[in-house]
Each structure stands twice: as C-alpha cells, then as structure tokens.
Write a structure and sequence with these properties.
The protein is built from nine helices and no strands. By secondary structure, it is mostly helical.
Length: 198
C-alpha cells in the first residue's frame, strides 16, 4: 500500500487532472479519474511484481513512441481544458453519468503512457527484494493488490479533500482553474515532446 501511495502521490498531470475534475465536475469524476490511474499502476505493479521482464523490455524499448502519444494527448487535453467554459450545477449533473467512463479511460491511458512508472516499480520492488525467483504468485498477487489499494486510497483522499472546497468556487474561479490547469497540463505534454528531441 505504501508503494502504491508513493507512486501516486507526487504532483503531476494526473494529480492536476483529478483535482480539476473534482472542482469542475464533482467528487465522483475525481475519484473515477484516480481509479483509472490506480488501475494502470496495478498493471505496472503486476509486470514488475511477477517479473514479466519481456513486457517491461518492450515498454522501455518503445518509450519514445509511448511518450510521443502521451505527450500529444496531454497537449490535446490541456488545450481543451484551457478553452472549456465552467458548467452550471445542472449541466454537471447531466454530464456526470456519460463522462465517468471517459474520465476513467483518459487517466488510465495517460498513466500507461508514462514509461517511467514501470521503471519506478521495478526499482522499488528490486530494492525491497520483492522480485525474483524466490517470490511466489500468492505474494506477488498480494503485493499488486496492496499497490492498487494504496494508489486508490490516495486518489480517494485527494478527491474527497478537494471536493470540500468545491462550493466556494464561483464561475470566475472555475474559469481561472481551467486556464491554469490547461496551461500546466499542456506544459507537461510539451515537456514530454521536447524531451524526445533532446
């Protein structure tokens, strides 16, 4: 669980996206977005925990293409968020049901397109002696479950905490949130794309 929290907690585009969705769409959108990221963390944890080196090798060898896709998607999301207008309470209620699947899949996809996640898990698991021939399927499964629970707990706490301040934001405040979030998320996307050139 501690590994799951330590992977999920650092501030990045996923965390910012969850905060922004919680503020603009409600707690459910933030939680579902976080669960998408937690699912991707669990998949990467599974690859590292079960020692699936052939999969991690493919992911690492293709990291430039993966980063290109992830960076482009972050730029698209950032621009879309920057240009979006705050929704009224009635509009949020209507959008909620239809957009939750999109919220989940977008953060799941973005987390999967970060090759550094698999390297982080591999390094942490190896450092703690949690991978290798001595680890059986039961302990590896418990480990992956712990990662998912830890990561999910972080997103639940984050979304729950942010939602407490949601009603204090006016339409103008939400517009500012959209502008700042859009710029920062686009910045993360541009950084990923520029790193490919370097």
């Amino acid at each position: 669980m501690i590994i799951g929290i330590s992977i999920a907690a650092p501030v990045g585009p996923i965390g910012l996206l969850c905060v922004r969705r919680t503020l603009t769409q409600g707690r459910a959108a933030g939680i579902v977005s976080g669960l998408g990221a937690a699912t991707a963390d669990a998949i990467y944890g599974c690859i590292a925990g079960f020692g699936l080196t052939f999969i991690s090798s493919i992911l690492i060898s293709q990291q430039k293409n993966i980063r290109l896709i992830g960076g482009a998607f972050l730029c698209y999301l950032g621009i879309r968020i920057f240009l979006s207008k705050p929704k009224s309470a009635g509009q949020v209620a209507m959008v909620k049901g239809s957009s939750l699947i999109g919220d989940y899949t977008s953060t799941f996809f973005l987390t999967l397109t970060n090759p550094m996640t698999i390297l982080s898990f591999s390094a942490i698991f190896a450092g703690l002696g949690l991978v290798g021939a001595g680890v059986n399927y039961t302990s590896a499964s418990v480990l992956v479950l712990g990662v998912f629970v830890g990561s999910s707990s972080w997103w639940l706490i984050l979304s729950g905490s942010v939602s407490l301040f949601r009603k204090k934001f006016t339409s103008t405040g939400m517009q500012i949130v959209n502008r700042i979030s859009g710029i920062i998320i686009t910045g993360f996307g541009l950084f990923a794309l520029i790193s490919l050139i370097r």
